[in-house]
Amino acid sequence: MIRFNQVNKTYPGGFLALKNVSFQIAPGEMAFLTGHSGAGKSTLLKLISLMEKPSSGTIHINNQNLDNVGYRQVPYMRRHIGMIFQNHNLLMDRTVFDNVALPLIIEGYSQKEIRRRVEAALEKIQLSDKQKCFPYMLSGGEQQRVGIARAIVNKPPILLADEPTGNLDPKLSLDIIKLFEEFNAAGVSVLIATHDLGLIARMRYRTLTLKSGNMITDGIVDGLHSQTEVVSE
Amino acid sequence: MSNYFKPSPENKVSTGQKLMSIPLRHLQQAIGSLGDLWRTPFTTFMTLLVLGISLTLPATLHLFVKNANNVVSQWDSASEITLFLKLNIDDKAGQNLASRLELYPEIAAVTYISAEQALKDFKLHSGFGDALTYLSENPLPATILVTPTKRSGQAVAAKDLLLKLEKEREVDQGKLDLEWLSRLEAMAKLIEDIVIAVALLLCLSVILIIGNTIRLAILNQKDAIAVMKLVGATDSFIQRPFMYAGAWYGIFGGIFANIAIFTLAHYLSSAMTELTALYHSSFTLETLSFTETVGLMGSAILLGLIGSYLSVRQHIRAIEPTAD
Ligand SMILES: Nc1ncnc2c1ncn2[C@@H]1O[C@H](COP(=O)(O)OP(=O)(O)O)[C@@H](O)[C@H]1O
Ligand SMILES: [Mg+2]
């Protein structure tokens, strides 16, 4: 589903953000991406969502080599990837309903179908009663959930989340992760970037660790005792 | 319920379904972008004012040229030939010639002015009245004013007629003042060229004004555009409301210009009626024809679309979504 092969990313200015990164995420797999701030987590997700291009190496998404994706195909590739960010990126002058409906409107669904799907997505995140609200009327956790509803409303096979629990308390964070687990159970591949090690420690998931651009571990983190295999650089 | 979230990447919407909804969606977006313009009434109004004026100017110049050509063509066909008779020709012979000329098929009207009449007129109008009484002899010849028919009044035909008339025995000299006519024509042509150049410049400024207005609108919506790109919107989807905004600017700018021109023409035409009544002229001011009105609207919309297209091409592509 996601395959990195010896990927390097140098930002303009010469900063080497990712160094020779290789890994794979299978369809229906759920994994965490962790590392200190500045380790290159966001950079890795940006490469997947075509916001940045790798300096060298190849990336395959859905068995499609991203080298062969031209400017015009980028939007169509992104429709297969649900993206969630710490600053949820909602349109502040549109209602919750309209925000969630955006990907469907873009893809040209009928009004009826849009209503059906948006209502189902809002029910899933338990915000059905807030669909006419504007984002500023919601709490941080609620806004984050609206962002999640927008990411999954068009049923993408891949879900990416960059610090989705960024400034939420542990209880809310766990709720959000549980939501991701539900999508994963329905067959969606999920990759969550977070520096919140405490959150990961409470679960048993594959964890990829970045340290200043190098992928240093890839394995199951189980509680505080991590059984990790070192990835050769 | 959780089944709903099962991924199904391919063929979410059938092509037929998509095609069916296209006209409806365009209509919605067109109305939506009209609403966006309404949300910033001051900016929109100022832009429309500038646009309207930029469109009114070339159209007014066009009207001016059109009416000037009309006037020139009226004068053209009414050109007159003055025949000065020899001094030894007496009144009777002169009047004979006048009646002979009246039979010419090329001639519409003939007026005979005797030498005495000419002197009287001259005394009356020149202000040399008293001085002229000291002359022992009338120095003025009798003259015949010849008005050619419309067809023989055209520049070339009138020249031929003049040559023919000068062959008459009684005629000393004929005069056809074509020079001012050709000068007037050349002037009209020059003005027309200037009008075309000015019109082109103003069209360019309309494109720039709309392009700049749309650029500001795009920058205003920068964040929203980035989010739309993030969830998979194509550039053509994002640019559509801005293209509609450009078209609306064209439509309203065109309507403004049409109203301004008709008001102006109406006002001038009533002033003109008084003036032309004084000169016993049948001149009436022509306003824009139906085709010209439609043409003005059409070019306004076209300019609006060109302006917004250029802006959209350049600025929407430059906006990239960011993760942070
Ligand atoms: N657009 C950019 N231009 C230059 N350097 C960047 C850019 N984005 C990120 N970086 C640098 O790349 C490194 C990795 O950043 P990032 O991927 O955001 O890390 P993380 O998400 O793990 O905190 C940081 O040192 C950051 O300063
Ligand atoms: Mg980051």
From TrEMBL, chain A:
Gene Ontology molecular function, alphabetical: ATP binding; ATP hydrolysis activity; transmembrane transporter activity
Primary location: membrane
Domain of life of the organism encoding this protein: Bacteria
A single BP term in Gene Ontology: cell division
SMART domains per UniProt: AAA
Subcellular location: Cell inner membrane; Cell membrane
Keywords, ordered alphabetically: ATP-binding, Cell cycle, Cell division, Cell membrane, Membrane, Nucleotide-binding
Domain ABC transporter: 2-233
Gene3D superfamilies given in the database record: P-loop containing nucleotide triphosphate hydrolases
GO cellular component term, pick one: plasma membrane
Membrane topology value: Peripheral membrane protein
Family: Belongs to the ABC transporter superfamily.
Subunit structure: Homodimer. Forms a membrane-associated complex with FtsX.
Biological role stated in the UniProt entry: Part of the ABC transporter FtsEX involved in cellular division. Important for assembly or stability of the septal ring.
PANTHER family the record matches: CELL DIVISION ATP-BINDING PROTEIN FTSE (PTHR24220:SF470), IMPORT ATP-BINDING PROTEIN (PTHR24220)
Protein name: Cell division ATP-binding protein FtsE
Highest classification ranks of the organism: Bacteria, Pseudomonadati, Pseudomonadota, Gammaproteobacteria, Alteromonadales
